[in-house]
């Protein structure tokens, strides 16, 4: 069985994997999640956070051969972690995530998408260091097909997202290229357009691209199905 390390996206924390972790463990896998710097219970000041700090936190949290699962924004830090040290990374799995292009920032890629569904919900902090999500809009952009209890659980836990890591051009090369990769597209996504998820993976082998008919939060909308896909992907290694 496999060892999964789950990495959250913008404004989220390890808490968002609440329902997926037991579903993976029920299939015999090891599964853990971490709070990236400044997220969840991590007290790193927002102004100090960098993309490499994210990547280094991921590498530090790994225990032996690991499948890294990155949601949304976390596509960038898991990719950078693979470039810095691919030794124990068995596979990168992008869950409706940004699959980066060398030299681009996450913000560049967001702007490259055909439309910007998330921006209506973004509230930039007055100091320009971070942004948050309008709580009244979070259900629509993140959780429109999730159970009401789950939406309430998530809304109270959303935090601020440091901007600097998303405005940092990623450097990825041979190390990153050598790591196996899979992508799980979400076809009802209202945060990263599904069309753009197709664009990001248009040159990937067909067997490495999967789809779920759900929102941007498959770990809440359909954790059993997501666990099944991850189980199948792990079997490819």
From TrEMBL:
Key word Transmembrane helix present: no
Official protein name in the record: Alpha/beta fold hydrolase
Gene3D superfamilies named in the record: alpha/beta hydrolase
Organism: Donghicola mangrovi
Domain (AB hydrolase-1) ranges: 4-227
One Gene Ontology MF term: hydrolase activity
Keywords: Hydrolase
Pfam entry (one): Abhydrolase_6
